[in-house]
Amino acid sequence: MNLRLTGKKVFITGSSKGIGLEIAKKFHSYGSTIALNSRSKESLDNAKRHFSKPIEGIQGDMTSAKSAQDAINKFVDKFGSLDILICNVGSGKSVIPLNENITDWEKSISLNLYSAINPISCSINHLTKSEGVITCISSICGDKMIENAPLTYSSAKSALNKYVLNSSFYLAKRNIRINAVSPGNVLFNGSIWEKKLKENKEEVLKMINNKVPLNKFITPANVAEAVAFLSSPLSNSTTGQILTVDGGQSIY
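Request: output the structure for the sequence above.
Response:
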């Protein structure tokens, strides 16, 4: 399928590993001009090795409004415009439910909500000019009570989903589309699920078989394909939507 992404200028936040890196590789394979992002220069350098051609890396912390602004400015200075913004920064690592303190809440909200709002706010004028697209990475925890999922993470992702829904009305007036992809249990090197499998493989596989109708983990590639589709001109009438990619887990 031709997603008509060739030549599109794409900035992917949190893209030095895991889901973000897979999204970057997917857009690159479709012929897009991409820039990677991480807080760490070392992580960016390592991520660039996954590409056969030189790739731009922009260091910046998306939880900081100033750092996000600097990163967006660097992207536009380098490429002249911005067509697609992918907000991937996030983390499900937190304390078990009812053990939270204010620091836990602040950290999770910063990583899973502000990390999207900051680069989006900095990009609106640029995306208005290009009639651009924003796609955020959320989680099924934002729409459904998932047992043992951190309350901080679930609440922050729920807020992100509501932001996507509500902001889509106002962004549409600027000819900008915004959507989100909501993955289930994504397994990759360094993921929470990799750690859980090492700790108790039998229990994890039992959960997958009992809770996920397709009886499998989600791969970063599954998420990347959904992001590419929502970000492409093929979805030019779709905005304010949350696309779930979870093997059927949320139907229960």
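The first strand starts at residue 9 and ends at 12.
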